[in-house]
Amino acid sequence: MIKWYNNSIILYMKKLFRDREYEVYNMIYRLPNVNDKDMLHEYIQEHYDNGETSISASLELATSEYGEWVEKIHRNALVGDEIWGKSLLYLCIDEGKLIGLLNIRYELPKYLAEKYGHIGYGVRPSERKKGYATTMLRHALSVCKEKGITQVILGCYKDNLASAATIKKNGGVLIAETKNEGKVSQYYIVKL
Ligand SMILES: CC(C)(COP(=O)(O)OP(=O)(O)OC[C@H]1O[C@@H](n2cnc3c(N)ncnc32)[C@H](O)[C@@H]1OP(=O)(O)O)[C@@H](O)C(=O)NCCC(=O)NCCS
């Protein structure tokens, strides 16, 4: 009965938001485990097939031994690190398919947040431009709020129009621009 009620609400929300040209996804966000190796390998391969060499928010997955990588992610979530604090690396899954990766660095000291931003994300090439990153960032902001952050800093390269649009759609306000080795980075703040 409760499940039916929840599903009805989700369907209603989907319709409501689709009418406004937004999509609402009922995604699952969870830490990776040892059984996710094939799914993640396929995710990486899709990027390579698309001519991309770096996998956003993957925390060096492609160059790590898989079991050690999983251990690192769980360690980051449970005990964190003296410099970076605790952080979450979520697999973002919709209807059983790995859609994207989300890295939430909710204990970052201010000087690191101002350089790297609190949140990183990536969506697999075949699932882009469907509203997934917007949904994922919204979820990340809700996690940050739960953790007590009142101002989230987000950074992206100025020429990354997709990321900048994702941030702005989530209430990001441009606060700074820096130039490093010819690349312009932009920094946004979202007040929670
Ligand atoms: C950036 C990225 C995460 C966006 O993911 P996405 O799921 O396609 O984003 P959404 O579908 O939620 O779209 C968000 C906004 O970006 C816009 N957008 C998406 N792709 C775009 C593109 N290639 N150029 C311009 N705008 C784009 C969308 O139109 C939407 O804005 P709108 O609703 O005002 O039209 C995805 O392109 C990606 O994974 N890129 C590689 C990794 C990366 O750059 N990560 C961010 C590092 S800061």
Task: Fill in the keyword field for this structure.
globular, binds coenzyme A, 39% helix, 192 residues, Aminopeptidase, single chain, alpha+beta
Could you please describe the fold and organization of this structure?
- It is a single chain.
- By secondary structure, the protein is an alpha+beta fold.
- It has a single domain, classed as Gcn5-related N-acetyltransferase (GNAT) (Aminopeptidase), CATH 3.40.630.
- The chain has six helices and seven strands, in the order H-E-H-H-E-E-H-E-H-E-H-E-E.
- It has helices at 2-19, 37-49, 66-78, 110-116, 132-146, 161-169; strands at residues 28-30, 88-94, 97-104, 119-123, 151-157, 173-180, 183-191.
- The strands form two sheets. It has a four-stranded antiparallel β-sheet, with helices on both faces. Strands 5-7-6 form a three-stranded antiparallel β-sheet, sandwiched between helices.
- A hairpin with a 2-residue loop joins strand 2 and strand 3.
- The chain starts with a helix and ends with a strand.
- The model has no long low-confidence stretch (mean pLDDT 92).
- The protein binds coenzyme A.
- Residues 56, 121-123, 128-134, 156, 160-163, 165-166, 169 line the site of coenzyme A.
Molecular shape: globular
- Distance from first to last alpha carbon: 34 Å
Q: If classified by CATH, what would the architecture be?
A: 3-Layer(aba) Sandwich
How much strand? 15-25%
Mean pLDDT: 92
How large is the count of helical segments? 6
> Strand order of the main beta sheet, please?
1-2-3-4
H-E string: HEHHEEHEHEHEE
Which CATH top level class fits? Alpha Beta
Helix content: 25-40%
What small molecules does this complex bind? coenzyme A
- Low-confidence segments: none
How many strands, which pairing sense, and closed or not: the largest β-sheet? 4 strands, antiparallel
Computed over alpha carbons, the radius of gyration is 17 Å
Count of the separate structural domains: 1
Structural class: alpha+beta
The CATH topology comes to: Aminopeptidase
CATH homologous superfamily (4th level) name: Gcn5-related N-acetyltransferase (GNAT)
Q: Total number of β-strand segments?
A: 7
